[in-house]
């Protein structure tokens, strides 16, 4: 009886030692990663996995390294193994969802985000993340619902408000979008990219055939950022609609001098071709 008890105690002690040693290796790898020594961290996680294949931590951390290296399939495999060993770790599930996003697998990302929402709907930014995945799939109604849910949790979330406006524009809910622009500039008067919002606001007025209102908003954008190339190009198009060709060419030429065509957000459109021909 005493011998059996001794064996049982020995087994428990050995299991605790294994668990502790796996944790120690995992912690050591994390410390290397924090210091920027990623290759050393990776080696430690590899060692931990070989010695303790049933410990979930080293898999998720090796997955993080793979994700940093943009080896997404390997990262997904490690996150999945970690979740197999510890299904309740929502942080790992979130990392896997984000890696699916990195890998343009938006359906699987939505599946993981949805699981997190079922288990913990207060998980930080989770509705916004699922909304963004739905945007990438052009599921705009679902994205709208998710952004509205996110704003119920975090009413002052600028990125959710801004993206909700864009979704409403996609859904042709123009009156709602226009009202939201007013709301967002009132609530975030010191937001660093406010000029972009005013530019988008102007573009929406143009889309709804209200060039005078568009001019008012684009002027606000250019007050905030004088040498805003996209804004100057937008105003040139507005002046063109209003028949003010001299002002249109003045803005267009200035935008070109500011390297408009090299701006990653610029796309040559009908306005560009008209202005180019008019202002040569």
Automatic annotation (TrEMBL):
Gene3D superfamilies: Tetratricopeptide repeat domain. This is Tetratricopeptide repeat protein. It comes from Flagellimonas hymeniacidonis. TPR repeats lie at residues 22-55, 56-89, 90-123, 124-157. Keywords: Repeat, TPR repeat. It holds the Pfam family TPR_8.
């Amino acid at each position: 009886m005493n011998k059996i008890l001794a064996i049982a105690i020995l087994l428990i002690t050995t299991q605790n030692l294994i668990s502790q040693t796996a944790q120690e290796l995992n912690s050591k790898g994390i410390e290397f990663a924090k210091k920027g020594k990623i290759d050393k961290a990776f080696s430690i996680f590899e060692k931990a996995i070989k010695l303790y294949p049933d410990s979930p931590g080293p898999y998720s951390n090796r997955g993080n390294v793979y994700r940093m290296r943009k080896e997404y399939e390997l990262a997904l495999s490690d996150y999945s193994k970690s979740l197999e060993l510890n299904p309740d770790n929502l942080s790992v599930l979130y990392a896997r969802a984000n890696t699916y996003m990195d890998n343009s697998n938006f359906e699987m990302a939505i599946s993981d985000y949805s699981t997190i929402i079922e288990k913990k709907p207060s998980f930080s930014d989770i509705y916004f993340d699922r909304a963004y995945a739905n945007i990438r799939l052009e599921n705009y109604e679902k994205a709208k619902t998710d952004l509205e849910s996110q704003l119920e949790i975090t009413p002052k979330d600028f990125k959710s408000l801004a993206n909700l406006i864009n979704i409403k524009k996609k859904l042709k809910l123009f009156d709602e979008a226009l009202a939201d622009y007013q709301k967002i500039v009132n609530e975030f008067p010191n937001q660093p990219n406010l000029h972009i919002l005013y530019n988008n606001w102007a573009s929406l007025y143009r889309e709804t055939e209200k060039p005078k209102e568009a001019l008012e908003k684009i002027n606000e954008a250019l007050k905030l950022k004088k040498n805003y190339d996209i804004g100057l190009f937008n105003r040139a198009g507005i002046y063109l609609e209003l028949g003010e060709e001299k002002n249109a060419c003045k803005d267009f030429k200035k935008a070109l001098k500011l390297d408009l065509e090299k701006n990653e957000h610029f796309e040559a459109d009908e306005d560009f071709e008209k202005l180019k021909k008019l202002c040569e």
